[in-house]
Each structure stands twice: as C-alpha cells, then as structure tokens.
Amino acid sequence: MPASSTACLTDTAEGRRLAAVETEGWHRWGPYLSERQWGTVREDYSEGGAAWDYLPHDHARSRAYRWGEDGIAGFSDDRQLWCLSLALWNGRDPILKERMFGLTNDEGNHGEDVKELWWYLDGTPTHSYMRMLYKYPHAPYPYADLVAENARRKGKNLPEYEIADTGVFEGGRYHDVTVDYAKAAPDDILMRVTVVNRGRQAADLHVLPQVVARNTWSWGRESWEAEQPRPLLRLTETGAVAATRGRAPALRFASLQPAEFLFCENETNTRRLFGTPGPAHPKDAINDRIVEGRHEAVNPLAEGTKCAAWTRLTVPAGGTVTLRFRLSPEAGPDARDPAAFDAVMAQRLAEADAFYAALQRDIADPDARLVQRQALAGMLWSKQFYHFDVRRWLAGDPAQPAPPEARRHGRDSDWTHLNNADIVSMPDKWEYPWYAAWDLAFHCVTFALIDPAFAKGQLILLTREWYMHPNGQLPAYEWAFGDVNPPVHAWAALRVYRMDQALTGKPDRAFLERVFHKLMLNFTWWVNRKDAGDRNVFQGGFLGLDNIGIFDRSAKLPTGGTLDQADGTAWMAMYSLNLMRIALELAVEDPVYEDIATKFFEHFLTIAEAMTHVGGNGTGLWDETDEFYYDVLSLPGGRQVPLRVRSLVGLIPLCAVEVLDEDFSERFPAFARRARWLLTHRPDLAAQVSRWEEPGRGNRVLLSLLRRHRMKALLRRMLDETEFLSPHGVRSVSKAHAAAPFRFPWDGQTFAVDYEPAESTTAVFGGNSNWRGPIWLPINFLLVEALTEFGRFYGPEFTIECPAGSGQYLTLPEIADELSARLTRLVLRGPDGRRPVLGDNPLFQDDPHFRDHVPFHEYFHGDTGAGLGAAHQTGWTGLIALLLQPRREVAGGPVPAAPEG
Question: What is an example of a Pfam family matching this protein (predicted)?
C-alpha cells in the first residue's frame, strides 16, 4: 500500500479491533505456541540441571511436555489448552517434521543453534491476520550431517555449519510452505497452507495440520490445571473433529478438502523411551503411522487428545497447491465453503495492508516499509504462552516419579514464589523460548508503536508479585532467575507512556503510577544488594554484556576482591534519572511525587560523584588520561586497578541523561527549591554534572553524568571508525584492540581482550554466550536516544566531527540520524542490491525466493554487518522498526510514534 495514505491507525479496521480487544476477546487466540519446548529448564527434572540432555530433540516427538507445547507455525488460545500447528513429511525423512531442529550447546562449536529456515512475514496486533514461511527440502533432512559436521568443527574460529551449507536447497529442490491465519471472529480461526514446489521436478509432500490438547492430566490433582473429564478430540459424522474440554465451549476442526484424520493421545511413549508399558496410542503414533506405515499405531476409534488432518500431495515442478482448514466454535455454522473462507482471508489481508499503510505513511522507501513490516511481524509471532510454577517444578508432581532431592537446592530454588502462566513476549521462540527481563523492556518500546496496551501490560506483568521476587528483584531469565539484567524498565515505561500518549492523545498516568511503585522496590533491591561497599558504585555482574571483558563478571573473580563496574553504576544513574522523570510526570496531578523526584535526583548526584571518586579515595571510573570510563578492580588489601578495556562498558554513561524543560521550576516548585539547595550547599555533588546554572537551548536544564568535556571525549572515540564506529553501527569492543589487545597478568595467568568482530574464540561463558566485537541493537538504540536528548539541550550550534577525522561536523540530532541510518543499513538493500545481514551467501543475497525475507539476528558482524547468533531474535533487533519510523516531538522529547489517532 502507498505510504501516502492519510488514515490514522485508530481509523482502520484493525485499529478499531485493537481498541475493543479486551471486551471482544481478539487476543484470546494468537501465535502463542513455542518453537521449542524440548531442552528447556522447565522441562528438566535431572539432578544436575542438564536441560539439553534430559529432554532432547529425539525425545520430543514421543514425550508429553509438562509445561507447554511446541510446533511449526503454531497458534493457540491464551491458556494453551488447544494448540494448532503444522507437521510435514517429504516421504524421505526418518521422522515427521513437527518442530524445528537445532543443535544443543554441546553439539555446536558456537553453542546452541537452530538449523532450519523460516521467516515471519506479516501480522497484526490482534492476530486477525498472520503469515509465516517455512522452507522444507525435497531431499532427506540432513539431521546426521548437521550434527556430525558441527562436531568436527571444534574451534570457535571455524564457522558454524548451517543447513544452507548442506546443499539441500540447491536447484530449488524444496517446497515453500506458507501458513496464513485469519480470524473470522475472535474464536474462529482460518488456517491456509500454501505449498509451492520451487524445483524442476514434481515432488511429494504430506501436509498435516495438527490439533493438540496440552497435557494437563498426567501430573496429579495438585495442579491447578488438573481436570476431569479429560479433553477429547473425536471424529463426527459430518467429517469434522469435535474438540471438547471441560466447561470450555466446544470447538470444531474441519478440513475444507478431503483429508484423513488420524488420532492418538498426547501422552509419553514410555515403551520407546524407557522400556516400560504405556498408552496404546502415544504422542508419536501419528509419526509411526505415516513414516513407518503402521496402521495400528493410531486409534481406530478416531478419537484422542491429538489429531492430524493428513493430506498427500504431489506438487508439480513450479506448481502451487492451497489447503484450507478451520478451527471454530462447534455451536456456530459449519462453514466449510472455500469461497467464504477465501473472502475472509482476503478481507483480513486488506485490513492488515490498511493498518500498515497508516503506520508507514511517512516512510517513502518501499524496502524500508517491507523491512519494518517484517520486523513487527517477528515481534508479533514471538509472543508465547509461558507456564512455569517453580515450587511445583522443584517438588515434582504427585503422579510422576519424585525428582532428585538435590534439585530442591539447585537452580532457581530461591524463586519458589514464581508462578507464571501468561502470554509473554519472547526474545526468540527457539533459541530463547523464555522471557528475559531486559530484553522484554526493549520489546515493549517496539510494541508501543502498534499496540501500546500490550506493551503496558507486559511491563506491569514483569513487576507483578508472581514474577518479581519478594525482595524486589526482577526475574532475569529461566536458566538463572537470580542473575542480574540492566535496569532499563523505568526507561521503557517512560518511553511506552509517551508513545501511547502520542497515539491516543491521553496520558495513562494510572499505568505509570502502577509500574513506578514496583520499580521503586526494584531500585531499592539494587541499592541494597549490588553496592557491595555502600559507596554508590555498583557491581551487577555480566549485565547482559557476555564476553566483553577479561573476566566472567558474574563469577567469583580469580583475583579476589570486587569489580566496580562502569556500566552497572551508569545503569543505576540512568535508573535514578528515569524514576525522577516519572515522579515529576506523576507530580503534574499529585504534588506528593515532587518529594520522590527529589529523592531520585539526590541519588543520581551521589552516584555521579562516586563514579569520579570511588570510596572517596580519588580513584574513579573515569580515566582522564584515556578520556574513557573503565571498570575498576578492587583487590584485597585496597589496591585498585582500572581495567583499560575500551568497550560498551565505557559508553553506557552516555545513556544517563535527562533534560528538564524551562518551565520545570514553575511546574514543580518544591522539587526545584530542593534541587537548588543541594547544588548550592553540596558543591562536591554539583561539580560532577553539567551545572544547574548553565541552562541550554530554551533555558532547558541538563542532568547527565557527563560534563561537556567528557561527553565530547566519549563521542570522539565512539565516532572513530578505527575504534567503535562501523559502517553498520557502534561495535561492542573498540577495533583498536585488534592491534593492541588488553593484557592483565595475574598469578601466572594472563587475561586478555582483543577485538573479534564476530563470536569470541575465548569461551569465558561457555555455550553461545561468547561474542566480543559485534554490533548490538539494544545499546545502539539507547545511544541514539541519548544523542537526541543531549541535542535538545545543546541545540544546533553544538557540533562534533562525525566520523572522527572526516572534517564533517554534525549536530547531535544529526549524529543520531547518522547512527540510525547505519543501523538500518544492516537490513536494507544497498545500492549494490545486497543486504549486509545476509552475509556472503549467494542463495540468500541473489535468489528471488530468499533475498527479501529478512532475518533479525541477535547481533551483527562488527565489520561486515552479517547476521550472527540467534536468527530470529526479533525481540530487541525489532528496534529496527523504530529506527525506520519518523520521530516527532511530544511532551518530554521526541519519540518514534505512529500517526496520531
């Protein structure tokens, strides 16, 4: 659709559905099914916590999951009681293709990695329309080859062996399988499967949409989900399948073309896995019927808790076959008319086009519109029903063997309050099929562009009592809820609040107040738990920065002592400013919040002072000689050693910035009086930040860790293409370390950091948590935000050379735009017709059936921009959608915003 449409989001059919989503239930069904439930912590009942080994891919087809389900192109209700997904078989594979395959941490030379090709192509916020594409080879899927060759590539200096490297897609010898979902009504789900044979010869394909009742009955009556009678799928005389489950409304699953329905139970095949008697028709019975030809494997009574509609196709060379399926209320009309089905599909697609035309009306470049729409599709498809009751998981279930006693004192044993059963935005539904606290904050800011209500709900959810620890800590991620993520949630709440206001015209102060009170508890946890010396200098641990320093910052230091972290301390300064700004926003209607704003203002000043004088002894995190921030190693005995690694750690202080508009003293007189008193009577605090009595453009006031000199010094390094600035964004580690690695000798060992533009060859963390120099969207996005905020204060007269040494001087907002442009060039087609994210693979770059399907990787090569890490981590890489969106000024500063409603 053209970007010149004058409609606004709320005027579109999808916008109106979104406004009624709570009352009409449009979110009740969605793409909430994980792509991987096997190999997750919550399915692991082993003594030692070896999740990948306890329930491997080989068990997944035969073993009932305790806490969820998985599948390809999955759709489910918001309690995941009924699940709809797609299975395929090319007639050659050893098993049905029911779920995505990938390597475990120990099998891959760069850690776990999915070995499939699929893309999320479209979606609407209410999931009224969704589309994804999966590529399935004609040849046998190379399971054994992928495992064996990756095992041979032992060194981290060797590339991963990917499915595209096996040759199975050469000559177009594969099927493009596109799955479209449309809702005729909130509970009426249309599923269209379109198969295109890209090869030069006809090829067989078995297509099996599956309906599964999540197993809630095998675990014992203590579970809240336990039910009697059991759910039932049963073939009716009409040729459709009736789905009944307790008191829930019955559903009807129908195929709009001839299909053979197969039935079994969603229960473990204990005979295959453990050599003990089990159900007659277990979870893998449909697999055995199709792949092994065993007619007796499935239930001859045509009933069970798992069923598939089996269609055998021979697709001619270059041919297309379309199949239609419908899951709808049994009480409604038996709508199996293909014409009516197609009309609903066409209508929902047209409505999706209209929605995105309104959103993208100011984006002229068609490629930018395509990329943004796919980025937002990835965000929408990455929602997942996440279920995990840690207390029950540790204790085990009454109807199952008791887990090893040692588990009660192992992983996450101090998080027994955590009991999650909610729709949550995931970083990635295969490699990271669990939420991560700081990832989720970035997700919410992107979601606010199209669904601010969902974004607000996610931030509130993370701070609810069944998520947040009683001590105030936010859960980090499933592998270790007690780890520490950067405290970016107040920043996210404020951004979501402003974007929501820009879209709706109404400030949702109730949301802001609700999340603010919980974040104050979290702030207190940080102060009490992560400031080891009560000096306002923070430790925090790895803080999401993985292998970016010489030590594993989450482990006991080999030197003893503590590590005073420039990033952890800067995050807390930023947190203080964010909470101060939220308190001032709330003080607009309730002056009581001015006192709380003052509290966080004071805390910001003490942190700023501590960064310069750690412990009051004159040693700071700022190195005046290098003009950069470093972590400081505090050794036993009191010696302090700056670790002069130039990395993102030293740039994060830029992000602690807030500008107050010129009328703040009139609007908040109590806050202004106290602030002036502090800055007058505590010159030791006032000297550390930009002075209160030096107003900037429009008499605005700047609160920042950086006086002008330090800010310019950091930006000179950041904008130096021989250091941090790459053609595609800011690197995680300075390229200067390629020629001059940092070395730290200790007790006969030498710890080092050099520049590696992709994954690190030093496995400090193990698995795939090892990268050193790549470009990483979250911090880049925050740097863009910080530059924009600094620009509000300094105005157009303030310029900096960009790139350093180029002779070109830009204002700070122009530098923010330049950095945004470099970041978006990662995924946009360049003048040479290539997308850097796709790397050097000619199949991806040149083939018309690949080149416009954009992967949103976890991070990107620091020199070439090629995609690295998880290939579907649209979560935070979805920030690309915001960078492509024109920004406009709202109260408190510019935000990426949808057209006004």
Answer: MGH1-like_GH
Could you tell me the two tokens for 188?
């009426």
**Cα–Cα distance, 261 to 258 (Å, whole number):** 10
Q: Which residues of 206-216 are buried (b: 16+ CB within 10 A; e: fewer)?
A: bbbbbbbbbbb
Where would I find the H helices in 463-531?
489-504, 509-529
Distance of alpha carbon 162 from alpha carbon 160, whole angstroms: 6
Mean pLDDT along residues 697-716: 89
Q: Which two tokens stand for residue 140?
A: 């046998």
Q: Which helix (H) or strand (E) holds 594?
A: helix 593-612
Question: Closest Cα to residue 753, out of 858, 861, 643, 653?
Answer: 643
For residue 854, give Cα distances in angstroms to 36, 375, 477, 842, 879.
21, 8, 27, 14, 14
**Using CA atoms, how far apart are residues 561 and 639, in angstroms rounded to an integer?**
10
Look up residue 535 and give its two tokens. 């000096």
pLDDT at residue number 1:
28
Ramachandran quadrant class, 307 (left: phi over 0; alpha: psi -120 to 50; beta: rest): beta
- Tell me the pLDDT band of 127, cut-offs 50, 70 and 90: very high
Q: How far apart are CA 495 and CA 493, in angstroms?
A: 6
Rounded Cα distance, 638 and 824, in Å? 46
Question: Phi, psi (5° rounding) for residue 21?
Answer: -65, -35
The overall pTM is greater than 0.90: yes
d(CA 279, CA 268): 8
The DSSP call for residue 821 is H
Two structure tokens written together for 275: 């050599």
Contact 379, 879 (CB under 8 A): no
Q: Of the spans 251-260, 547-556, 636-645, 769-778, which averages the highest pLDDT?
A: 251-260
Distances (CA, A) of 226 to 66, 221, 567, 729, 763: 12, 5, 46, 51, 44
Does residue 277 have a cis bond before it (omega within 30 degrees)?
Answer: no
Percent of the chain with pLDDT over 70: 94
Of 257, 267, 255, give the one whose Cα is nearest residue 306.
Answer: 267
Residues 6 or more apart whose CB falls under 8 angstroms from that of 646 comprise 626, 628, 717, 723, 724, 733, 734, 736, 737
Number of H helices, E strands in the chain: 26, 36
DSSP designation for 474: P
What length does the chain have?
Answer: 901
Give the pair of three-digit tokens for residue 169. Answer: 């897609």
The mean pLDDT of 77-81, rounded to a whole number, is 97
3-class secondary-structure state, position 204: strand
Binning pLDDT at 50, 70 and 90, where does residue 684 land?
Answer: confident
Which alpha helices (H) appear in 245-326, and where do they start and end?
270-274, 285-291
3-state secondary structure 733-767: ECCHHHHCCEEEEECCEEEEECCCCCECCCCCCCC
d(CA 291, CA 22): 44
Q: Which helix (H) or strand (E) holds 441?
A: helix 437-447
Close Cβ partners of 491 (under 8 Å, ≥ 6 residues apart): 441, 574, 575, 578, 782
Query: What is the rounded distance in angstroms from the CA atom of residue 57 to the CA atom of residue 45?
Result: 16
Q: Is 429 exposed, middle or buried (0-12, 13-18, 19+ CB in 10 A)?
A: buried
DSSP state of 707: -
Q: Provide the strand spans (E) within 427-574.
A: 562-564
H or E stretch covering 207: strand 203-213
Inter-residue contact 432 to 426 (CB < 8 Å): yes
CA separation for the pair 147, 330 (Å, rounded): 45
Q: What is the pLDDT of residues 320-333, one digit of tens each?
A: 999 999 999 999 88
pLDDT digit string, tens, across residues 515-549: 999 999 999 999 998 887 788 888 877 787 766 78
193: nearest Cα among 246, 237, 134? 134
Would you state the torsion angle of the CA atoms of residues 343, 344, 347, 351, taken in this order, to the nearest 10 degrees?
Answer: -170
Please, what's the b/e burial string for 692-729 (b: 16 or more CB within 10 A of its CB; e: otherwise)? beeebbeebbbbbbbbeebbebbbbbbbbeebbbbebb
